[in-house]
Amino acid sequence: MFNLRPRYEPLTSNFEPSRLRTRLVPQRCYLVVWLITIVIAAGIGGLIGSHLDHHRPCQPSPGYSNPSIPLRTHKEVFTYNRTFGADPREDANTQAAWDSIVPLGQGTVRYPTPDTDQIYYTVSVVHQLHCLSYYGVMSVNHSAQHAVHKEEEEHIPRHMRHCFDYLRQSLMCAADATLEPVDAALGGVTGWGAERVCRDYAALAAWAEERRVSDARGFE
Known about the structure:
Elements: E1 6-7, E2 21-22, H1 29-41, E3 73-77, H2 82-85, H3 94-100, E4 108-110, E5 120-122, H4 124-143, H5 150-174, E6 195-199, H6 201-210
Helix pairs in contact: 1-4, 4-5
């Protein structure tokens, strides 16, 4: 996930699921750590997010589908897991850790909905994880000073803007209201140690795998 950059392709009438094409791109390391902390703190891993309009409240768009998935909730206390934020060149477990949380099929499902021709969808949380992995990709390749093609250089700013705003809106939509104790010695909060209510991400991943359109693993 840190050495790959997924790029989504538009679906056509003769769509056949395939693995997402990937390339290497650069960026600063602090971005991935910062984003991982925020997303984990918001409990984004268990949510099916929806886009917020810039000028009005969230409203379903034509063909909008938010299936009623029976997901249980459970109490959980966040604890720091260094593996997810480690440089994969220094920690051999980092890549495997990220790949392990992506459902088989990369979250793209076949889900026909009434009154629309739309058949294929991607579960929002997997899209959000994709955006998070994108910054991991950039951090590693920035430090490695990896050269990119002009096409990549032009694509990176657009993808960055997309991911930043998409994650912003997803976090605000989830609006995790857990109260996190301030550490007086630290003069701030870490997000660790506070009990919160989470949705069952494993059950959502299983739901997506049952309806998957490919056997792609991780963000390969």
